[in-house]
Amino acid sequence: MKSKFNRFLSQWQLQWMVLPGIAFMIVFNYIPIYGISIAFKNYTVVDSVSSANWVGLENFRIIFEDTFFWEAVRNTLAISLLKLALGFFIPIALAIMIYEMKDGKLKKTIQTISYIPHFFSWIVLGGMMISWLSTSGFFNQLLMSVGLMDKGVNHLLEPSKYWWIAVFSDLWKEVGWGTILYLAGMSKIDPTYYEAARIDGASKLTQIRKITLPLLTPIISLNLILAVSGILGSNLDQTFVLMNSQNQNRSEVINSFVYKMGITQGDFSYATAVGLGVSVISIILLLVTNKVTKKMNNGQSVIL
After folding, report:
1. pTM higher than 0.70 for the full model?
2. pLDDT in tens, 285-299
3. I need a surface site. Which of 148, 208, 220, 266 has the fewest CB within 10 A?
4. End-to-end distance of the chain based on CA atoms, in angstroms?
5. Helix/strand/coil for 3
């Protein structure tokens, strides 16, 4: 203990730098945890957290009987699983293609073009999507010009198309940004591995399969853990921009449902119960995925 305390004193400048971050986490991350108790209470705006009446698991019973909640769960899982199936592998493939390019200027141009959508808010990109998908929008004009449509339709008013619109618009926005970690990891790979593989007659695909992907396994594992653990947290900003009264039965996700129940309707206990349930399931998914990815890293965990 004495040696640890002496080391702490010897690094007092660094410790002072860390204190604001610790204080921020305590105030905004840990103290609010006390409010989770309202999930087990009948809380209203005229109550305090401590004075509200306890109702036990009543709010959770209501959740299981709420058809609108399960509709939101269905939409969330459908959209998130589609995003995971496409959005997890496409950035890896794009990063490898960019890395293998020989023309430096073209490589930088493609990287920049793919990154740019990430820096625009969903308000901007959502407005563009609404305009493009409207009856006289860009997509309809394009489809009619090649003979795939006779007349334009508003695609966002057709519920059956919403999941794919949400998935592909999210890919458009985030795929380029998702390549950053992979490109950083590939830049640290020793070039002599590839030189030795070429001498042995390995093709480019073999080099990718035997060198690039195995050395990217820790980064791939980390991204997989984060993606799976966040599978119940579909993009709220995107939903608010693209959702309308016609596609709501396909666009309502858990996050927007919680917002509606808590902020719009004032049922804070119910909304907190839903949020708590989602958080618990996300932690379970995190631990399970971490356990699975250990096998990809020779028994080594990338987070725990």
Report:
1. yes
2. 988 888 888 877 777
3. 148
4. 25
5. helix
